[in-house]
Amino acid sequence: MLSTTVQLKAELNPERGFSFPAGQIYVAEEKVNSDYYHASVFTHDPYANHKLVTGNDEYYRIHFNHRYVFVKASDVEVVSQR
User: Which three-class secondary structure state does DSSP give residue 18?
Assistant: First the structure.
């Protein structure tokens, strides 16, 4: 698996109470586009009215405190491997 090293441009304070200071460096495993699964009602036929909605925002998946965290690609800077 290829990995990328990213550095935060500014401090991030997500809704869950975690704080990510500016300048922190993390290993990012992958870069993904935003998406969500829209299912307004439960049905046995998922193709009836369920759909996957894909956005244009890009995120990097990093490891933080034994969790996966997605940070916006625009909030980080890719740094060279050492």
Answer: coil
- Are 48 and 38 in contact by the 8 Å Cβ rule? The answer is no
The three-state secondary structure class of 38 is: strand
Neighbouring CB atoms inside 10 A of 28's CB total 20
Neighbour tally for 58: CB within 10 Å: 13
Per residue of the chain (82 residues), give pLDDT as tens: 456 777 777 777 666 567 777 888 888 888 889 888 877 777 777 667 778 888 899 988 888 778 888 888 888 888 866 5
Burial 63-82 (b: 16+ CB within 10 A, else e): eeeeeebbbebebbeeeeee
β-pair type (4-8, 25-38): antiparallel
* Residues forming a β-bridge with 53: 36
Report field, pTM of the whole predicted structure over 0.90: no
